């Protein structure tokens, strides 16, 4: 696909690509974390506390990843949580999520570092949060141990509050592939 | 990555690949639609009616796609819905979701056909549904109009009930890439 055609296509598909891309890149380069927490159905101090709690859980996702502590990572998830990774592997339940990440953090992601940016959280009901962020990953390798270039993606976490505590009940992850509107051809 | 290594890796990552793959393939081949609707927090006839309503919305996603009716497609979404597509494009609001799909359904997906299989729906609260399914897509083309092979993926829809009606409030889509645990190297 020619670059010009690709850019024209992308401008149609994603009305704000240049600004978003630059803005995203700025935060990635500066290594800063930006959290934009909003609510579509509720407000007030209770919601602020919940927003802070949800933000802490999502931050912990990256913190556990970066110290490769899959015990702590798994505790962020509800027992019946589901997780779909960037190649469509669909894990059902905390045990599967933990086992899969334990394996990749002993291999592909052993020395990887995940940085989350541009977190946006919505509360469709007071007990449910939809938290989406972009991310960048560095330090990952092939199954043969060969270093790979930086990757970026979009991570969705759905969280539920239970007994005053927030847990991830669903995650789906998608790689960002620049310059195309659909899967690369 | 050698096939044997890939299979070994995948067996670790996804504890049920052979059965799931065969089972999935069977439904794809037969063109049948299988809906597995469960609930983690509630039951009874009210929930059955909600399960049926959510199933209809997810079925309508594919029906609108297949007749390339983006007006009807957009009406499935709440005004403030978000959508992340398979290459990480992040659309915010019904208008962006509609515009992006109008464009692709005039080009890449003009004659494409989407089939949803293995729908699984959970209700973390009575007003929220998490509906995930696998899908296959045929009949899509490159930006230059060249036919592309079948693709498969995993689609997550989060729905909210408002005034007795269910709307998609969030979608994230991920391509299935066989034989790898993470992005292909």
TrEMBL record, chains A, B:
| All copies of domain DUF4440, residue ranges | 55-166
Instruction: Give the CDD domains listed for this entry.
Output: NTF2_like
Look up the domain of life of the source. Answer: Bacteria
Q: What InterPro entries is this protein classified in?
A: DUF4440 (IPR027843), NTF2-like_dom_sf (IPR032710), Steroid_delta5-4_isomerase (IPR011944)
SUPFAM superfamilies found in the cross-reference section = NTF2-like
Name the record gives this protein: DUF4440 domain-containing protein
Could you tell me which species this protein originates from? Albidiferax ferrireducens (strain ATCC BAA-621 / DSM 15236 / T118) (Rhodoferax ferrireducens)
Q: What is the lineage of its organism?
A: Bacteria, Pseudomonadati, Pseudomonadota, Betaproteobacteria, Burkholderiales
């Amino acid at each position: 696909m020619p670059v010009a055609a690709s850019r024209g296509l992308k401008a149609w598909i994603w009305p704000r690509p240049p600004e978003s891309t630059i803005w995203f890149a700025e935060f990635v380069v500066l290594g800063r974390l930006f959290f934009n927490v909003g609510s579509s159905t509720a407000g007030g101090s209770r919601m602020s506390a919940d927003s802070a709690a949800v933000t802490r859980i999502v931050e912990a996702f990256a913190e556990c990843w970066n110290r490769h502590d899959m015990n702590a990572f798994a505790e962020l998830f509800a027992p019946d949580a589901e997780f779909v990774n960037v190649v469509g592997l669909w894990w059902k339940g905390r045990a599967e999520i933990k086992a899969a990440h334990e394996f990749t953090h002993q291999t592909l992601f052993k020395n990887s570092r995940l940085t989350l940016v541009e977190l946006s959280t919505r509360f469709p009901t007071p007990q449910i949060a939809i938290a989406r962020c972009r991310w960048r990953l560095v330090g990952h390798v092939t199954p043969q141990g060969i270093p790979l270039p930086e990757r970026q993606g979009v991570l969705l976490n759905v969280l539920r509050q239970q007994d005053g505590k927030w847990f991830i009940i669903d995650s789906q992850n998608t790689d960002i592939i620049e310059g195309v509107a659909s899967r690369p051809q």
